[in-house]
Amino acid sequence: MKKLLLLSALLCGHVAHAQKLTATERKIVASVQQNMPKNEKLLEQVVNINSGTLNVQGVREVGTVFQKEFEALGFKTEWVAMPASMQRAGHLVAQRKGTKGKRLFLIGHLDTVFELDMPAGKFTRLTDSTATGQGVNDMKGGNVVMLAALQALQAQGLLKNASITAYFTGDEERGGTGPEARADFIARARQAEIGLGFETATNLHTVATARRGASTWQLNTYGKAAHSSGIFRPDVGDGAIFEAARILNAFRETLSKEQFLTFNPGLLVGGSEVVYDAARARGQVVGKTNIIAPTATVSGDLRFLTEVQKETARTAMRAIVAQSLPQTRAEITFTDGIPGMAPTAGNQRLAALADQCSHDLGLGPVAAGDPGARGAGDISYVAQYLDCLDGLGVSGKGAHAAGETINLKEFPKLVERAALMIYRLTK
Q1: Cβ–Cβ under 8 Å, residues 389 and 207
Q2: What percentage of the chain has pLDDT greater than the value 70?
Q3: Which residues belong to the signal peptide in this entry (predicted)?
Q4: Residues 391, 375: contact at Cβ < 8 Å?
Q5: N or C: which end of the chain has fewer CB within 10 A?
Q6: E strand or H helix that includes residue 66
Q7: Does 87 lie in the same domain as 143?
Q8: From CA 371, how far away is CA 309, in angstroms rounded?
């Protein structure tokens, strides 16, 4: 009897939520469910194509698969080429122009971190609710969520007057250098009103209203080469390696407690002779234990939530670098990368829309996640120009590592939510 009462309560709750959907919205949900087997096959197809950023042919091959799917939905597609010297595949753009509702800019990327020489498996079902494969959640699954949502709307004739640009970059994981890499991306985004990113969802109940930015820094320290027996003497000094250690430890002591700010020295070389190749992230060094090192190089990253936080941190780091140990000197340079996506009122309104759609679908609440838990992403390049929401892709675990998974149980639910959001924004 108790089991019957519980089942009745659950069914009543589902019906109550379903009644919050209009007849058109219920048809959208039905279309999503009908198309899921086909779209899971599509996901398997693109996952089984290696598209590491530097595998230009593979990135283009994945893009061509999506290009055909978007053209079938009536989108006009084109490839935005990058300079040959950049050695990147370029970007796929699919566009429909209309006059109804908000102008949307939907963001995905075709590349993965898995290059041809890295271990990464094909699409493989592990259980009824889990599958693995290279880029299955970051972010080939997210690309399919976007496409599947639009397919459900097209099936009901709801894209006729919508203004939507779907933009798939080819080098999100290892961005090409120079302003050309994102110039077209930014220009097209500025013509829209709302940006929706389909990067990995933390889970069914979390979206991203903010993301940290990422930049790099390089520290060079110099000391006086001499016999090790004279180290710390006033005329010899402390050497380049101790100066690098002083600076790194001062960074840690001064800045490590600040919320959302992180800085990581990822490579350090020091000795009598140092050759550092920044492009290849490699260093060669020669040194002896009885020689005080005259030079050291450290390279690292700096992650931050806002531009103000980034600049404040850089000012503090420069001040620390300027306080040299005896007979040493140091210099630090900073290189901008992906900007931060600050949490704005407009972004929060989009999170509220996701929450409402989720409730109306009977899926439970949705809230903004911790920005510190997410890395940098393409959406941050345009977040200063329009309201943005990210984390609308598939859920899963282990992104950027062999064994990366997708939660197949949540996959259709996330497509339903995305379709409902796009419909309500464009109707």
Answers
A1: yes
A2: 96
A3: 1-18
A4: no
A5: N
A6: helix 56-72
A7: yes
A8: 14
Write the single-letter amino acid at 153: L
Q: Rounded to an integer, what distance in angstroms lies between the CA atom of residue 172 and that of residue 410?
A: 25
Total domains in the chain come to 2
Kind plus residue range of the DSSP H or E element containing 318: helix 307-321
140 with 47, same domain: the answer is yes
Domain at 373, CATH number: 3.40.630.10
**Token reading at 77:** 């597609």
Give the tokens for residue 15: 């019906």
The predicted-structure confidence for 210-269, as pLDDT tens digits, reads as follows 999 999 999 999 999 999 999 999 999 999 999 999 999 999 999 999 999 999 999 999
**Greater pLDDT, 319 or 8:** 319
The mean per-residue pLDDT over the stretch 42-55 comes to 96
DSSP string, 277-317: ETTTTEEEEE--TTB---EEEEEEEEEESSHHHHHHHHHHH
Q: Looking at the structure, do residues 59 and 196 belong to the same domain, yes or no? A: yes
Beta bridge partners of 106: 166, 196
Q: Which two tokens stand for residue 237?
A: 């000094």
Nearest to 312 by CA among 322, 304, 301: 304
Residue 172, pLDDT > 70, answer: yes
Give the rounded percent of residues in the chain with a pLDDT score beyond 90. Answer: 86
Q: Which residue from 31, 58, 30, 46 is spatially nearest to 131, judged by alpha carbons?
A: 46
90 CB neighbour count, 10 Å cutoff: 23
* Confidence bin at 3 (pLDDT 50/70/90): very low
Whether the Cβ atoms of residue 275 and residue 299 lie closer than 8 Å to each other: no
